[in-house]
cyclic-guanylate-specific phosphodiesterase (Oceanisphaera profunda), 297 residues
Amino acid sequence: QADIALYAAKEAGRNQLFFFDPLLQAETIERALLVRDLRQALEQDELVLFYQPIVDAQQHIRAVEALLRWFHPKHGMVLPGKFIPLAERNGLIVPIGKWVLETACAQLAEWQQDPEREALVIAVNISARQLSKTNFVDTVKSVLAQTGARADRLMLEITESIFQDNVNSTITKMDALRQEGVRFSLDDFGTGYSSLTYLKRLPIDHLKIDKSFVDDIFEDSSDIAIVHTIIALAKNLEIDIIAEGVETCEQMEWLQGNGCKFFQGYLFSHPLHPDKLNAILENTTLLPTKELRSSCD
Ligand code: C2E
Ligand code: MG
Ligand code: MG
Ligand code: MG
């Protein structure tokens, strides 16, 4: 018990010893236990990379986003919202993120053997903490070399949180990877540190409108204005837009009518286990949702 409390205290970020505090929040202990388990999750093969399709207006799968799932021996499936922030805080995101890159690139290399699938792109989420590592560029390059994946099929998703770091060194790294063919998208756009001035400087190819705006396009007139502004801005900068969290035909139609080219959301598909995705791709790169098309007509 005291062990756990000590552990919890460390994880809580207090770099000092302290005596067992019976009032220590149960939540803090639970989080500490989760971190303890997460340290072993990689070795014990408990992490699985799911993939969520990103489709074009014809509902052809053009890319997939890699989304991490942790199958915990006791708690079952744990979503990234529960463990990624912990991993970011204690640095575990670096080895975990490397595993994600390796796994995604191995999948790309496999698809490249098949002319039907070789054009598919995988988008991989990159935490600011990973990008801030001085060897980030080399890590990505060596994973590409080792797996044999084509750099131009890899898309890295970064968020506005990178603006808290040295933007110039971030841009230098992005440029180095873009030289290799790697593409970048800016994730969750509109939710974070406002970055309209940086947006112009950032070498990005795609911009993902956050789900919170997509949710509100029929509810909130200021969100409609924001979405219009984002789309206009992206057009000017010649950046393609991906809409996140599309759940209804109405949203899809509105977004498409207003210049959005790519879509991701439960309307098309949930994130899928790789076996399930590959079974779908086996037959076609079109999602098997005929009902969807007719219901959206
Ligand atoms: P994100 O990158 O913005 O990913 C999109 C999230 O929205 C995913 O949640 C996805 O399952 C969810 N989503 C997609 N379509 C819909 C929809 O129509 N409705 C709703 N309600 N949700 C939808 P998920 O998988 O729980 O991941 C959450 C976040 O965790 C991600 O947000 C990303 O920031 C982070 N994450 C996931 N995998 C990784 C990873 O491998 N590395 C890093 N650094 N972060 C990751
Ligand atoms: Mg993402
Ligand atoms: Mg996102
Ligand atoms: Mg999001």
In short: Residues 52, 66-68, 79-81, 84, 93, 97, 100, 125-127, 157, 187-188, 244-247, 264-266, 271 surround C2E (ligand 1) (CB under 6 Å). Residues 21 and 48 are 36 Å apart (CA to CA). The chain has a mean pLDDT of 88.
